[in-house]
Amino acid sequence: MVSIRDRSVRASLCICAGIAGLATPAAAAPNIATDSAVFVEHRQTNALRSLEPATDLSRGDRVVTILRWYRLGGDGDFTITNPLPKAISYQKSTRSGELVSVDGGRTWGRLGQLRIGSRYATPEDVTHVRWRISARHAASGSGQIAYRGIVR
Questions:
Q1: What is the bridge-based pairing of β-strands 142-151 and 88-93?
Q2: 55-79 tens-digit pLDDT
Q3: pTM for this one?
Q4: Which of the residues 9, 43, 125, 146 could staple to 102 if both were Cys, CB 3.0 to 4.6 A apart?
Q5: β-strand 56-57 against 115-116: which pairing, if any?
Q6: Among the listed residues 19, 14, 13, the one whose alpha carbon sits nearest the alpha carbon of residue 33
Q7: Are 147 and 90 in contact (CB under 8 A)?
């Protein structure tokens, strides 16, 4: 069992989102703040699921991380980059179009296209996920992205 009350584990499960502004040079670069919460998913039936704030995690637990972003100023679109904790095996995002890295953030692509040696990368190989937030969506001032994972 993993306790996220432990400072080192809690830090590894915390979203360490990096923001890279993609605004044009004439526009002010976006100023973005993020926060996140980790929940354990419980399935009562195939159709009924519930989420509880994560306090203790065990191998095999299904978790949902909700990343919230807030635009504090600036213009244009931006990208949120999220390194995954080593204890979590990525499953999928609720937002389509995400790019993943399987090499610590050096290269990016979609699952099914990235390779590790002679094999295609799997969700378990993902080290980072990033999402592009369009200027239109960013203009709303805030938003959230959720992704699923499994505790290794």
A1: antiparallel
A2: 889 999 999 999 999 999 998 999 9
A3: 0.77
A4: 125
A5: unpaired
A6: 19
A7: yes
